[in-house]
Amino acid sequence: MKSMMKWVLMGGGLLLVLIVGAIVLIPKLVDVQKYKPMIEELVTEQTGRSFSMGDDLQLSVFPWVGVSLSDLSLGSPKGFENKDMIAVKRLEVRLRFMPLLFRKVEVSTFVVDTPRLFLEKAKNGKANWENIGPGEDVGEKKDETTGPSDQKLPIKSLLVGNFSILNGLVSYVDQGSGLKKEVSDFNLTLTNISLDKPIGVKLSVKLDGKSILLEGLAGPVGKEPGKEDLNLDMTLKALDQLSIHLKGKIIQPMGAQKIVMDVDVASFSPRKLLSDMGQPFFVKTADPKVLDKVALKARIEGGATAIKLSNGVLTLDDSKLTFLAEAKAFDKPDLKFDLNLDSIDLDRYLPPEKEKAGKENSGEKSAGNKAGKQKETDYGPLRKLVLDGKIKVGSLKAANLRIQDFVAHVTAKNGVIDLDPLGLNLYQGSVAFKARLDVRKKNPRTQFTLDAKDILAGPLLKDAIEKEIIEGAMVANMTLKMIGESPDMVKKSLEGKGELKFVDGAIVGIDIANTVRNATAGLGLGETPAKKPRTDFAELNIPFSADKGIVNIPGARLISPLIRLLAKGNVNLEKEDLDFRVEPKFVATLKGQGDTKDRSGLTVPLLITGSFDSPKIRPDLKGMLGNKIPDAENIEQMLKSSGSSSSQRESVEEQAKDLLKGFMPNLKN
Question: Model-level pTM?
Answer without folding.
Answer: 0.73
